[in-house]
Structure formats: structure tokens, C-alpha cells
Amino acid sequence: MSRVRLAVRALRLALNRAHADPTADYDAASSDYDTFFSPVMGGHSTAALAEVPIAPGDSVVELACGTGHLTAEIIRRLDGRGAVRAVDKSPGMLDVAREKVRALTAGTPGLGVELSVGDMDSFIRGLPDRSADLVVVGWAICYTKPTRLLAEIGRVLRPGGRVLVIETRADAHQALTEGLEKVFADDPSLLTSLIRVALPKNAATVARWFTKAGLTVTGQRDGAQVIPAHTPAAVLEWVQRSGAAAGFKTAVDNGREQLVLDRVEAGLAELLRKKGTLEIQHTFVVVTGAKPVAPRARHGARTGEEAGVA
């Protein structure tokens, strides 16, 4: 019955368009992000970046750049020539990114770097057609409508241009998410906004998003990383200070946030007693793709201009 009440509560919130905003969580995590998330998951991000070629002179767009972990890697690979246009919705995260990037761009007049605060959907809609060689979306496509965003990415890419998506999988932090769902099921009034995320089941799901958007899939794989937290308190600290719990602050009834955390921690402690271990995995997907190059005209076929078509 409790889950039925939770479903009714969620439906009511959806009808009222009460959606949680993850920005506050990322702002709060910005000073700790490179201490918690980047050392654990940053290596997977960098490895994913190695799967798309970057050459000096390229124009790169990065959506949801966060603290600039991948932005810095992109800049290094451009080797002083090219352009980077990056955006993030969290002012706190972007402040960290600006400091990181400033040291890398000093004395490089051939490299243009622009970091903007804003929504990635609006940002990419404002970019010209065929203006980028690579678009990177790290840990953020879940916050938008994936196929629609990928279609915009396809518009912005030059023919043959590449796209990289790395994203958390729907089964990540499973024990934690199940514990949180139980807390809300026991008391639906604790939930005041819905956390809307389109987390994929696996890499094949993201590959289908690419195909629907008209992009060619060039690579896809699933991965997993055990987070370095093995006690209930450490798990909760990691997900909050790494940004993995983005949306929580505005999804929970104001003033009862600690109550929810205490109940989730108690649930994790019970799980630890039953299993003897608490292993939380951050599962993820990496998918790369490209904008198809228009097929060459068949031999003997006339172009529109040659045929007198204006």
C-alpha cells in the first residue's frame, strides 16, 4: 500500500510540474567534486575521451563541463590551437573550471576557450550549423531529452564530426536508490519534487538514441566502478559530495532533509548487517558516434547547379 501512495504522490507532483533542480546539489558539491568524484570516475572520463580523435585546430563543444576535468584534457590535446566552447548550469562548478582552465590557456593566442553558465539545451540551440568537430557530454545527458539533444548535436557537427557521451546507468548505486525509495514509500509527504533523469539501462540504449538522432554509432561499452565507501555514513558522504545525489536538495521537504538521510543510513546499516559488506557500484556507459558524411554524387550525375537548379 505504501508504494501505491508513493505512486499517487509522484503522479500529483508530475501533474503540477514539480520537478527537482540539480543545480543546488552541484553548487554544494563543487568544492569537493575534484576530491570525491574526479579521482574515482575521472579516469573513466579521460579513457572515454581517448576514444574520439582530437587534433590541434579542432573546434570542441562540451555540454555540462562541471569542474572542467574533461575541459582541461581537451585543451591539452588541442596543443595551443583550436576552440573550446563549454557550458554548465552550476555557477559553483563553473567557477572551479575557470580556475583550472586559466592556467592552461595562458600564452596560447591560437586557442579560444569560452566557458558559459547556462542550460545545455539552450546553449547548443544557439550554436551555428556545422560549427564543431567534436561534442562531448559527460555525465549529463540524463537531465535532458536525449534524442532531441543528440539531434541538435548532429546539426552542430560538421560532416564526419564526432560525439562522445558518458553517462551513469540506471542500476548505479542500487542499494542506495532502493533505500531512498523505501523511505519515500513509507512517508510520501517527504517527497516534494520529482527528480527527472533519463538514465539508460545500458550502452545499447544510448546507441539507439544516437541512431534515432541520425548519428552513426562508432563504439559502445558498459563499465562499473566500486565507489571507495564501505560504511553507510561514507556512502552518503560520497554521493552528496560527489554530485551523485543531484536533485536531492530540492526533491525533499524543506527542513526534513536530515531525517531522510538518517533513515537511508539506517537502511544501509541493516543491509550491511545482513550481507556483511556494503559494495556500491557506479555503473556507466560510454558511446561514441559521428555525423555521417554526405554520400558523393554518382559518376555522371549532375549537381543541382549544373542542372540549372537555383
Strand content: 15-25%
Return the string of H and E elements.
HHHEHEHEHEHEHHEHHHE
Total domain modules = 1
The outline comes out as globular
Rg calc: 22 Å
For the record, the CATH architecture stands as 3-Layer(aba) Sandwich
Number of strands: 7
Low-pLDDT residue intervals, each spanning 5 or more residues? 296-310
Structural class: alpha/beta
- The end-to-end distance, rounded to whole angstroms, is 67 Å
Can you tell me the CATH superfamily?
Answer: Vaccinia Virus protein VP39
Task: Give me the number of helical elements.
Answer: 12
Organism: Streptomyces aurantiacus JA 4570
Pfam family, one: Methyltransf_25
GO biological process, one term: methylation
Keywords: Methyltransferase, Signal, Transferase
Walk me through what this model shows.
With 310 residues, the chain is α/β, with parallel strands linked by helices. It has a single domain (1-291), classed as Vaccinia Virus protein VP39 (Rossmann fold, 3-Layer(aba) Sandwich). The chain has 12 helices and 7 strands. It has helices at 2-15, 23-29, 33-49, 69-78, 91-105, 120-125, 146-156, 174-186, 203-212, 232-241, 248-251, 257-275, and strands at residues 59-63, 82-88, 111-117, 132-138, 157-168, 216-226, 281-290. The chain has a 7-stranded mixed beta sheet with strand order 3-2-1-4-5-7-6, with helices on both faces. Strand 2, helix 5 (91-105) and strand 3 form a beta-alpha-beta unit. 40% of the residues are buried. The model is unreliable at 296-310 (pLDDT under 50).
